[in-house]
Specification:
Length: about 220
């Protein structure tokens, strides 16, 4: 009898007992290669528009050719629309430059110097910045800038040196006074310095260039 009860107890324990759980092993599969040739090739597995800036721009063109990402500023069209060639002639800029000593022969001599200095290569490697950032500022502001530039060229190098000193002096004054731009609370010297510092440098360079052209 005792043996029968013991047997029934063992059967019940086996029927209703909880089976031991197998140990859970963490997967060691690598999902990033990190250039070591291990794991998955994420470049091959991800969509084309996530494979870098170049691939993304090409993909955007397939969706919409007239997109803001790849759109370029049309310099020639805007020059024609603003009649800048006529404005340049009307302000006598070319004749004033020639009077200062800048003619075609001088330009031919300057170009190899610029190439040796690497400036032309830098310009070629930064076409997007020049076309989409610098060109709009120059072209759109040209109707207002051409008369001022023409007057400065007619006056000679001192006018450019004066402009450089004025821009540099204004930047120094903003730094000393520590003026803050309203609403955004940033120092005015930093904000306006983005314009004043390049303007001072370009004006000084123009003054030196015109001074060296005097025959």
């Amino acid at each position: 009898m005792k043996f029968l009860v013991l047997a029934l107890s063992m059967v019940s324990a086996a029927s209703f007992g909880v089976a031991p759980q197998s140990a859970v092993r963490t997967s060691t599969q690598l999902h990033e290669g990190f250039g070591l040739g291990l794991g998955e090739d994420t470049y091959a597995n991800q969509p084309d528009f996530l494979k870098g800036e170049g691939e993304y721009k090409e993909w955007v063109n397939t969706v919409n050719e007239d997109n803001m990402l790849n759109r370029q500023y049309n310099v020639i069209r805007r020059v024609r629309e603003l009649n800048l060639l006529k404005a340049t002639a009307d302000n006598g800029i070319l004749s004033k430059l020639e009077a200062q000593g800048l003619d075609l022969s001088t330009i031919e001599k300057v170009l190899p110097v610029l190439e040796d200095a690497g400036l032309l290569s830098i310009a070629g490697n930064n076409q997007q910045i020049l076309v989409n950032l610098v060109a709009p500022l120059l072209v759109e502001g040209a109707p207002f800038l051409l008369p001022v530039v023409a007057g400065a060229i007619g006056s000679g190098p001192p006018a450019f040196f004066l402009a450089a000193a004025a821009a540099g002096g204004l930047e120094v004054a903003l730094l000393i006074s520590d003026v803050q731009v309203p609403l955004i609370g940033l120092p005015a010297a930093y904000i306006f310095g983005l314009l004043l510092v390049p303007l001072a440098g370009a004006s000084a360079a123009a003054g030196v260039a015109l001074g060296s052209l005097k025959k």
